[in-house]
Amino acid sequence: MYKKLFKKHLENFISILSKFGVVYAPVKKASKLYDFTELTDFKELQLKYTRTMIPPKKFFLKPKEPLYLLNKDKGFKEIVDDSKTVLLGVHSCDINAINLLDRVYLNQFPDLFYKTRRDNTIIIGVSCEPDENCFCTSTGSSHALRGFDLFMHEVDDRYIIRVGSLKGFQIISECKNILADTSLPDIKEFKRVEAERIKRISLNLNVNGIQDILDLSHDHSAWQENADICFGCGTCNLVCPTCRCYDVVDYLKLDLKNGLRARRWDSCMLRQHALVAGGLNFRPTRVERLYNRFNCKMSFSEDSLNCVGCGRCTVYCPADINFVEVLNQVRED
Amino acid sequence: MTWIIKNEKPKIGVFSLTGCAGDQLMILNLEDTLIELLAKFDIKSFQEASSYSENTKLDIAFIEGSVSTDHDLKILKNIRENSSLLVAIGDCAINGCVQAMRNNQTSIAERMLDVYGVKDNVYNALEPKGVGEYVKVDAEIPGCPIEKEEVFNAFISLLNGDMPLIPDYPVCVECKLNGYPCVIIEESKPCLGPIITAGCDARCPGLGLDCIGCRGAIRGETNAKAELETLRKRGYNDKYIINRLRFFAGNFEDIKNLGVREASKGERDE
Ligand code: SF4
Ligand code: SF4
Ligand code: SF4
Ligand code: SF4
């Protein structure tokens, strides 16, 4: 189902959204930095943005979060955050990334903390502004088929809104006064704008047979060359919308009886990531860690890669290691 | 990792070698919890807090300051002999810190002449080094000075029979967890965060400043060459970068080894 919202009604639309939860949307924080921030001032909203540094996964799997209150005698108590949230302006790549995280955190053994927030969050997509680091057409994530409640495609002075869920339908029903039905010219224009947007995604990553290529190139010199200039700083993982690893720590209170169990995002580029009890580290060197990261991102689970082509790891790497270039280097010989 | 607690109230001592005593001060700055915290220990020495001092066997010795004189070395060896655990607190005790800035660059005689106007080593000075160069160290709490929170958690861990948990990853991680703009990426500032031990919650980048490395380079993971390259590409010259790296980490092998190369064109010397 498609509806049409003229831009002049956007502020109104957002005030209706705020009835469904606290609205978070992209806000510009520095020259290259956008961040999903609580929208308190409509003027701060930046629906035309390249990418946020920290992906929207931060709402479901928080960068740092308390999990349990501990007590030596009474056991533990979960700390669950069930606040209602609306994420406005999520790009297709990031929606596809959330779909990947859902497989890990919701299937089989659902993660209570993730699931609670996922259930309490409305996701509203928006068409993206690709730059030279985007390669989502290569990873099949330039379009979102599911994983959103509404999706707003910007077409000139209006948004063509796609409804993706029952919750999305409920929002639409509240917006009767400001929404209109789409007409044939709208759809024609929509198709033209979409095709034009896709054309702007010019960076290509050949993912054909990529798993075999990586398997066969374990000894390729590109790994060592890049490991030599890599800091092992973890940035590439921490900004990646599909990275899902965390580390758990207990903090005790002075009475040594009460405490807090918390987790924070981890990174396979950090040397303690593969350290296990007894002191064995099965990826002690940076080159092993780098190889592992590229393998993880380029492996297929079910039908898709673990990379959605957002370009963040390249943009934010302080050592200027370029994700697509490394893979091309490995493929070339 | 764990250690065996022998006494219900572990006997502790807090000692200073060459340094500014800022780390002892940071322990005293734990105002809200200090009395309650220290009551869990049997304090045998605490230079900055009390003139009372007992020369006795200890469960844990906390040492701040670097070994910079003969005298420091003698004190250190005595403490080590008398303590089950030795914890180096602060960058000076861990690696020599600011005192080690000129190590291997000028001789002690030159430094004596510069500062005191005499060539003779009247104070029996040694090249400043961390205590680990001379004795076995069981745990380290980095920082210049150490972080209150980290000290507090370290004390609790020790009371619980655990070893202190100290990050061994760089400041960049904390920048990301906090969503701070990266000052290298955004503004080409000469940030040392990628090779510096986290634990300050990326205090400086959080304020828009570049990290100068006060928590010390990361043991065994410092890619100093990559830092040199990263900052060169952004227009800084070798001399500036190397001086900056040596400020807190002059004793680090890979920083020592960089050497000063010809300054490149289009340099930026701030
Ligand atoms: S962001 Fe760059 S420097 Fe940091 S770990 Fe990743 S590849 Fe290495
Ligand atoms: S690997 Fe890089 S490009 Fe791919 S999803 Fe992660 S951050 Fe984006
Ligand atoms: S500001 Fe410095 S510490 Fe923070 S991410 Fe950038 S390089 Fe790393
Ligand atoms: S200089 Fe670096 S390590 Fe020190 S407080 Fe600032 S950010 Fe942290």
UniProtKB/TrEMBL annotation, chain A:
Residues 221-251, 298-327 form the 4Fe-4S ferredoxin-type domain. GO terms for molecular function: iron-sulfur cluster binding; oxidoreductase activity. PROSITE patterns: 4FE4S_FER_1, 4FE4S_FER_2. InterPro entries: 4Fe4S_Fe-S-bd, 4Fe4S_Fe_S_CS, Helical_ferredxn. This is 4Fe-4S dicluster domain-containing protein. It comes from Odinarchaeota yellowstonii (strain LCB_4).
Automatic annotation (TrEMBL), chain B:
Keywords: Oxidoreductase. Pfam families: Oxidored_q6. Gene3D superfamilies: NADH:ubiquinone oxidoreductase-like, 20kDa subunit (3.40.50.700). Residues 20-157 form the NADH:ubiquinone oxidoreductase-like 20kDa subunit domain. It comes from the Archaea. GO terms for molecular function: iron-sulfur cluster binding; oxidoreductase activity. InterPro entries: Hydrogenase_assoc-protein, NADH_UbQ_OxRdtase-like_20kDa, NiFe_Hase_small_N_sf. This is Hydrogenase. It comes from Odinarchaeota yellowstonii (strain LCB_4). The lineage of its organism: Archaea, Promethearchaeati, Candidatus Odinarchaeota, Candidatus Odinarchaeia, Candidatus Odinarchaeales.
